[in-house]
Design goal:
Elements: E1 6-15, E2 18-28, E3 33-37, H1 44-51, E4 59-64, E5 67-68, H2 74-80, E6 84-87, H3 99-110, H4 115-128, H5 144-156, E7 162-166, H6 174-189, E8 193-197, H7 201-207, E9 210-215, E10 218-224, H8 225-230, H9 237-240
Length: about 240
């Protein structure tokens, strides 16, 4: 059996007196997309932020490609983030930088490329997200859907193994939702798996190999789409009609 690329073991997280995670355990297999579902307030985005070191968890372990990463310092985590990338819900673009400069930013932070190599890499990923014509524009010139696509381009420009998708389809019209899902399919076809945090069950059905549901601080369900459809668990049932 293929070893998981990402392992979450007994992750626990509190904010003051509020316990968000009581012991979350999950594996992500190489190249797959795992849909992470749960009601509002169950800590889906918090979980992603813990994995990448943007939140400090209270207990548990996170392993990436056989290396425990939750104990790493910021400099060490910076190297991990070239392979374990975060796609922010809002796109999180720098307002004063053009689309091309936004996408190039991780390259300049982590790699030493020539100007020609950088331009080629940025051009490739902008084409991949259907934004090749917008390289010279500022974020203020873009729609919300376009900003999310640029954010996805920036998340993959370093060619990571895993992308943490924080609700990439939230707030988008149906056409832009389909655009984002097609892009995720393209990324997956290039070997980039990920965790897809979403409330959009139809979208999850289209791109996910497996689904996991957070419930009362733990994983209440985990399985493929067939297992999800066949389940009669009261944890699963409310999501089938979403």
């Amino acid at each position: 059996m293929v070893a998981p690329v990402l392992q979450i073991k007994n992750l626990q997280k509190k904010f003051g007196d509020k316990t968000v995670h009581r012991g979350v355990t999950l594996d992500l297999r190489p190249g797959e997309i795992l849909g992470l579902l749960g009601n509002s307030g169950t800590g889906k985005s918090v979980l992603l932020r813990c994995l990448i070191g943007l939140e400090v968890m209270d207990e548990g372990e996170v392993w990436f490609k056989g290396q425990r990463i939750d104990l790493l310092n910021e400099n060490q985590l910076s190297k991990i983030r070239t392979q374990l990338s975060y796609a922010f819900q809002s796109g999180a673009l720098f307002d004063s930088l053009t689309v091309q400069e936004n996408v190039a930013y991780p390259l300049r932070e982590h790699l030493r490329l020539t100007e020609a190599e950088e331009a080629q890499r940025v051009g490739e990923v902008l084409t991949l997200v259907r934004m090749g014509e917008a390289a010279h524009l500022l974020p203020s010139d873009l729609s919300g859907g376009m900003q999310k696509r640029v954010g996805l381009a920036r998340a993959v420009v370093l060619r990571p193994d895993v992308i943490l998708y924080d609700e990439p389809t939230a707030g988008l019209d149906p056409v832009n939702v389909e655009n984002v899902l097609e892009i995720m399919h393209d990324f997956k076809s290039r070997g980039m798996g990920g965790i897809f945090v979403t409330h959009d069950i139809p979208a999850a059905r289209k791109v996910c190999d497996r689904l996991a549901i957070l419930h009362e601080g733990r994983v209440g369900f985990e399985g493929d789409i067939n297992a999800f459809d066949a389940s009669t668990s009261p944890i699963v049932e409310p999501f089938k009609s979403s």
